[in-house]
Amino acid sequence: MAIKVHGIAVSPYTARVLLCLHEKSLDYELLPVDLASGAHKQHSYLSLEY
């Protein structure tokens, strides 16, 4: 089961997480979030459990 990372690849915070996952050879899936359209403020995104 791959770790799901929500973010954008150009973000330094997301890049740091992806780098660590890659260094540890862990499977991950980047799920892009469209910040320009406000997807990060939608109920479906805000209701995700971490």
Automatic annotation (TrEMBL):
Q: Which residues cross the membrane?
A: none
Residue span(s) of domain GST N-terminal? 1-50
Output the InterPro entries linked to this UniProt entry: Glutathione_S-Trfase_N, Thioredoxin-like_sf
The GO molecular function terms of this record are: transferase activity
Q: Which SUPFAM superfamilies match?
A: Thioredoxin-like (SSF52833)
Transferase as a keyword of this entry, yes or no, is yes
Does this entry carry the keyword Transferase?
Answer: yes
Question: Which controlled-vocabulary keywords does the entry list?
Answer: Transferase
Q: Which domain of life is it from?
A: Eukaryota
The entry's protein name is Glutathione S-transferase PARB
What organism, scientifically named, is this protein from? Answer: Morella rubra (Chinese bayberry)
Q: What is the lineage of its organism?
A: Eukaryota, Viridiplantae, Streptophyta, Embryophyta, Tracheophyta
